[in-house]
Each structure stands twice: as C-alpha cells, then as structure tokens.
## 1
Amino acid sequence: KYFATHLSLSAADAEMLHMKYYEDYGLAISGLVMHHKIDPLEYNREVDDALPLDGLLTPNPELRKLLEDIDTSKVKPWLFTNGYITHAQRVVKLLGIDDLFEGITFCDYSKMPFICKPLPEMYEKAEREAGARSSEDCYF
C-alpha cells in the first residue's frame, strides 16, 4: 500500500515495483530511498512499525523451548535481520523470546547507504557485532 500511496501507482504496478526492488536490493525500502528519496525512518513508522502484529504473533512456547535448549556455552544466540531495530525488537517480544538473545544486528535505516542481506558487508557486520572470530563460527 505504501508504494501505491506514496508513488501514485496502481496496485499492480506497486506490487511489481516492490518485488523488483526487493529482488534487486535485498530490501524494497532500499529502492525507495535510492530512486524516490523516501525517508526510511518514516517508511518504517508507516509500514513495519504500523503492522498489526499484536493479533498475529503470540508467545510461542515451542520456539522458546527450542531456543532455551541451545547450549550457550558453545553457541551465542544472536538476532540477524534486515528489519529496523524497532520492528525486530517488537517481533521477538511478541513471540516471548526477546530475553534469549545476546544481541542483534539489524539494517540501520538511519545510515546511508543501507547495508542489508544479501550484501557480504551485512554478514561481516553481524560477525563483528556478535564477536565472531570468522564466518566459519557462524550459522546464518
């Protein structure tokens, strides 16, 4: 809906452009910022942070148990997302697993240019922030 509203596109053209940007850049918002000078933090407020997730995501005991069973003496649980931090924090809180991660690497919408998956720099950022010695120590 954001594409259609802010770029004055039909629903079909908006969907096509959204998918093109997603495929070309890893995040649709990257294309919006690059080609249409959209404010990424405004986009996040109007799109990701505005999603009605409260009714969709609920605490997931099975997922929590799975994560609690990870031997943290061998593995450091770390969130790694293309979303902005506010969205990522909201999702894990709604799932009831926000206390099970030691940190988070996210796409920082406040810094240009965006570094996001699948760019190698995003994986390097995650490794650095998580304190991994090398990518061989990571499970993505």
Note: The helical segments are 2-7, 11-25, 28-36, 40-46, 61-68, 85-94, 120-130.
## 2
Amino acid sequence: MTIGNDSAYFIKARQAGRPVVKDLPKFDLDQYIANYRGKTRFDRLLLIGTTAPLLAPEALRAAVTEAKQGRDVGRYDAVVAAIRELLPGDINAVPDSAWIDRTNKQVKAESDRLETELKGYKNNLIKESIRMGYDDLGQHFHRTGDLINSVKAYGRMRDFCTTASHVVIMTLRLINVSIDQGNWLAVQTNVQKLRSPGQLSTEARQTAAKLSAAMGLALLASGNFREAAQEFVETDPRMAQARLDDPSDAEAFNEVMTPNDIAVYGGLCALASMDRNELQKHVLENGKFRTYLELEPHIRRAITFFVSSKYSACLSILESYRSDYLLDIHLQRHLGELYFQIRSKAIQQYFIPFSRVTFAALASAFDTDEHTIEQELTSMIKRKHLDARIDLVDRVLLSRTANARSDVHQNALKMAKDYERTAHLRILRIEMLNAGLEVTDKGKPGANTTLENVGLDPLHGGASAGNWISEGIGRSLRSGLRD
C-alpha cells in the first residue's frame, strides 16, 4: 500500500510549513535504520513516515515494531496516531490495548522495585550501591520515556560518584538524555564539564569523540554552523571504526548519530561557514576528518569542487541529496538555511572578479532560471551577504565601487581636525599649569587639589572635562594671569 503526495495529511503538512519529500532518497530504509539504536532509531522512523509519502507505510510499520520492543508507551501512541491518519485501514491503526496495559504494569512494577532497592541502599549508607541504584533508575526512566525523572536521577547520582570514571559515565548519560529532550544548552554545559581541566582523566579523553560529536550537534541545533563545523572536523577518528551492531562497543555513539552523520553534518556546516582556503586547510587536509569523509565520498567531492571554484558541480551534488537530508532528524530544520548560505558563498566567490554580471550568466553558472537567481540576489543583499546593486531594467548585478578620492579626502580632514583639537588642548593645559591653577573641592572645605588629581585633565578628561573647562576654567585662568 502506498500513500500519494496529495493525501490529506501531507496537504495539511505543506500548509503548516512542514517539509514533504516527494522523491525517494538514495538510501535503503532497512540498511539506513539498522545503523541506529535506542530512541533515535524510533524518532528517525517516525520522521520518515510522516515526511516521505513513498516510504510512509514501511517506516511507520517499522516504527510500531520498534516501539513494541521497548517500554515507552508514549512512542507507541504517537506512531499509532500517525498511522490512523495516514493508513486508516491498516491493522496497526487500532491501538493494542492489551500490550499497553501489560507494559504500563511492567513499567510501574520495575519503577517500584528500583525505588525500593534504592531506599535500602540509602539505609545501608553504601555510596557505591546508592550510585548504582540511581544509575539503574535513570536508565529505566530513560528507556520508558520519562526523561524529566531520568535527569533528576542522574543529577542525584552526582553526589555519590567517587571516581573520575563515575563522573564520566554520569555526565555521558545526562548528555544522551538532554539530546533526546532537545535541551541543547544542557548538552553544551555537560560537555564543558568533562572538558574542564579538573576532569581530564583517562576516561574523559577516551570519550573525546563523543564529546565533540555531542557539542557539534548542539551547536548545529543552535544555528551556529561555524563552531559546529569546527567540532565535527576535530572529532577523534576512533568513532569511525566503531562496530555499530555491537551495543557493548564503547566507541559507538549510534544511540545519537553514526560516523556517516558526522561526515555529513561537518561537511555541510563547513561549506556554509568557511571560505575556500579554510575548507582546504581545516577539512580536506584534516587527517582526523578525512576518515569520516571516506564514509561519504559525495561530501568530499562537493567540498573539493567548491575549493576548485566549480560551484555548479558542488551545488548539483548537494541538490541530489536534498531528499536524504530532509529525512534526517537533526538536519531537516536547518537544511534550508545551510543550502542558502552555501549558495550565497558560491555566488559571492563567483562575483568577486566582475564589476557587473547579467542574470542570464549567473543563472547559467548556477544551473537555475533568471527569476530564481533574482530572488536569491535580492535576499542576499537584504541580509547583507552581498555588497552589490541590482539593475532590473538591464537585468544586471552591479558591484559597489568605492570612491577612493573621496575616502582619502575624508580621512585627511578627520586627521586634521583631530590634530587641531589635540594641539589646542595641549596648549590650554600648558597655560593652566603655568598659571598655577588649583581646584577646591566644595564637598571638603579647605581641601585643595591639582587639576590632574580630580581627573579633569583637558587632554584626557573627555566630555566632563570639556564641560568643566567651558564653565569655570576661563574665568579662573584670566584671574590667575592678572595676578
């Protein structure tokens, strides 16, 4: 059973401004989703099912299976609601009440058991047992979708961590929960805690790849593409060798992202925020990031084309993967801005050697039509990404030429005025000192201070000194000179 692009659900989605992917992506859904585990696996399936009409049935049914393998009833309710709208005749459109009741009872029983054990540990006053009790409780809440209580459990666990490895484990758990919550400020805060000089333990250094990936993801979510790129390109390559099908592999981070995601996120953020020299030095020649780029050769080719000024080829590659990136849970919200900034940079670089370029030439160079290029140029100029003017009569983009003669005259006049003012103030100060001028502080009778002591040096005193001079010094100076 397939779903058309014109179904009521996707018509409403487009009207609400949500993306709807009409074309099939380049990846195979089963192979793609097999690389993930945990909550992100379900979230990605649900996103694909509610964004891509051609993949919706397969993705939503897989999401139901994934939800039933866990104990998060909220996930199951969400995917059943989506199926009810998209596939009303499907067997999964009717909630499995027996499974829901059974799972709720199991979750409650497990919660009661863990809390009872924790109380026993507290009565025995054994710190390690209490720490493990909070750890088990936090993981249980995380698996069942109670993220708020999971954060609370891990937060209370902090007081019972006795070694550096305990702190690292606790902080990584907090980072994972914060990512699932979308609390990016908490992600950055916890990463910085492990990166602080006091936490530079062997365990913290072993998790450097995860910390870089988590920080890069938080910065990407915040729209800070340049700093996100710097984090991704400096990610330790050890994560690229992780076995994604082995949950016990400590290097794997596929409960959040895969090494392929690091290559894509880092490459796109770098293209959007770095110039050609920086791309060559910090991305293509970066030994750490090269390991990740080998997993996504099209990203490396796009960056190479951009560095070589082959902008049309670069943009063509990125456009061919637009459907894939719109189905990525972390890229979807930012893809439009990333692509806009990449195209803006390409147009800027293309326009640098010219004083004027026709819309037709730009449209041909960037494989689009004149109307689209006109809209892009207008948006770039409004956002101050391009210092140029548009001639709609001749349909030409004109560079702004600076008037060098006028600039020289303005700078010379400014220097002359500054010199004149400085000379006047220096002469005035000398005359005041020659007159032996003293200032009496009215707040302290009998207290005489010199001009400099009260901070009224005419040369350095600023506006207050100037006002004081204009009001009182003239009269005092003339009196001193007569004496």
Note: The longest strand covers residues 388-391.
## 3
Amino acid sequence: MDQSLVLGENLSLEPFPQQAPDAASPTVLIVGGGVTGLVNAWALLDRGYRVTIISKEWASFTDHQRLTSQIAGALWEYPPAVCGQHTDAMSLSKSKRWCMIAYNVWEAIVSNPKLAALAGVQMRSSNFFFPFPIEEHSGQYRKMQEIENSGVHGFNRAPNLIQKQGVNPRFGAVDAYEHLAPVIDTDRCMEWLMVLTQSKGAKFHTETITEDLFKQEQELLNRFSADVLVNCTGLSALSLAGDQTCYPLRGALIRVVNDGTDFPKVDCSLAITADAAQDNEIVFIVPRNDNILLIGGVAQPHRWDLDLTLESPEIQRMRARAEAFLPGLKRARLDDEYPIAQGLRPARERNIRVERELRTRTVSLHGEEIEEPSRIIHSYGHGGSGWSLSFGCAADVVGLVEDVLHNLPASGMKMQERVEVPDVHVQAVWNQSLKDEPIRAKL
C-alpha cells in the first residue's frame, strides 16, 4: 500500500490532474462531501482516477446549520487531540503518521502566500498549558517528546509562555510548550477544495443515501459506472456502514471579533486539553482568520440535539473558563453574523476506521459458491481530527483503492509500524485565474 502523499510528487496544486485519466481509467465513487471526501477525491484525481462525489449537502455560507467540516476548530493537532476522545491504541498509532503527512501538505500550501490566502490556511504558534509539570503526567510527557521529535517546526517548551500570552496566573497553569501548526479557515478552505477537485475533473452529485452501502453496493457501482466506492460519511456511517459503534460527540464554539479593539488581538492558539484540565473541561482559543476568534470547547458524547444557545449552561461555563484563563476576553464582542457554531463530531468507539469493508458475499462461479470481497473502502470516525489527519488518511485510501482494483483480499487495520514521513516544502504554481478571481464551486 502506498502510504504517503507529497506535494510535487504525487499530489499537485494545479487546477488539473497531475496524471490525466484515459479511456481505461477506473472510476471511484466517493460518498460524503466533507473535508475527508474532498481530500480523498483530490488524491485520487491526481493519480489519474475518475471521481464522482455523492453528498446529501455541500458546504454553505449562510446563517443556517453548516457542515461538520465547517464548524470544526480546524487547528492541526498531534494526537490525541484536545477533546480527549482518542483512546484506541491502533487508531492512535496510525494517526501519528497520518497527522504528519497532513502537516507537511498544509505547510507547503502556506509557503505560497497567495495560495494560502485562497485556501484559508495559516501557520500559527500553537500553545498548550498544563496545571502540573509535564513530567508528572506520563501521557502528556510522552506526547510532548513525540511532538519535539516529529518534524513539526518551532517547538519550544517554556513555562514563561504563561506570562507571555497573558494567561491569568491565578488560573493555575504552571507549564507550557508551543510549536507551529496549521490553522484553517474552514469556510474558505471547503470552497477552495470544492473548486480544486472540480477543476481536476470531479463530478458532484447531490443525493441522500440512507441504507447500508454494502446492501446497495452493486446498484451504486452500476449506476455511477464506478469500480470502487469510498465511504467518507462521518457520523452517517452508523447506518451507511452498519457500524453501531459510531456516536456523536457534540461540540460548540463561540465566535468573537478579534480585531484588537476590545482586547489585545490574539494571534496564536491557546489550549488546555481535556485530560490535562483539572475539571476535564477544555480551554480552546483559536484565531479562525484575521478577524474572528473561536472560543471553546465542549465534547459531549451521545448528544444528538443541536439546541445549544449562548444561554445554555455548558456554553456559559465554556465562556467563563475562557475568560478566567484569558481575562481580556471578558470584553470580547460576539460575531453578529454567526455568534455560536455547534455540530456533531463523528466519533467511534475504536476511533478512526480506514480499511476495506470486511463483509463478503456468497456468489456462484462455474457452479461453485465462493466468497466475493466488497469493493467498499471506509474512512470515517475521525472525531475532531478530520482536518488534522485528512491527507494522511487519504494516502492510505489510495493504497486500498489499488488493492481493490488488483483483487487482493481485504484485511482489517493493523498496528502502525514506524514509517518516516517525507518533509517536503514545495512552492506551488497556481493558475492565474484562480489567483485573481473569487472562487465559486459549481453544484
């Protein structure tokens, strides 16, 4: 299985596929139009595949409920993420490689300022604070050491970050470190990804699918003249993959104006993770773009309702924590157009699933019954880490597509062996028309 995506080698920022399809090129049908589906489409298009994406809805930019991919905090994180729900050892092991593939791609995008502005991606200092010396928490100490040796840039362990970033000394933070991390304006980046994949040849089809994909696999493959089906449906995998271990992890963010008028402008992310917080409640403060600051967060498992308001007790506690942590936020003004964002992170008991469908069908061949493998590949259960792991998971999906097309037997996920991830910085060349004109996806 090909296990890497590298800009300039097998992934291109040009508005056409790196490897053009021909008459014999296989077609991949992707179900799901969020960040996972779009990044998978990008990776496959650049390998010369034809791609159709089915989604019941697409990124929108109104005051109505937005996609989970848009609501996400979209701060790149080394796993486990701030929300504290990533516990499966195998998934966690793989995620440590997936996240670094994504880190390198996002960083290469940022290396081109015009492209970074189009995609809504910035590299910012990401600061993590702890109410204890980090050595006293084995998990956090191990994570810090892994980050330091992972290839991320700008790592610096410095308790004086508490004072430097204006953290209230009475909040109880005693230790801290920082590193550079991609921060993504999800609204802008989702539209950019839609335009990019369409320009490379992806077809978008709006349709709601409600039943197990396995039961309708052949009908879907036939209807869309596809050879492989990739399931990127997030929480909908509960029904579309027949996976009863999927569950919602409700989250919410308050959006405030971050222009330096009401409080000192916050230019970096500030966080206390769930397992480091004394009350297991998160502090998550992230600049969404140059003018909006996100304040979070909550992580409520098995809560399906999206009925949170600014007056909800958990939202008031969330805001009070942030204001106690960074007192200047007491003067913050809400974003009038979109003051609170809430959504359901697509969680799963064994965390992320990137593997082929393991169910088989009994078919008759020359009078003999045989077990026929499915042509479905799954990529779901990312929780709050879809943006952080996007390109890494897509690299594995590309390999699994090749396995299907070569009629190799399906196998389950295995513990990740140590694989070096190339650290490649590419100055992207971008089509002038996309530089100079507003981007709009065609639906």
Note: Residues 126 and 269 are 5 Å apart (CA to CA).
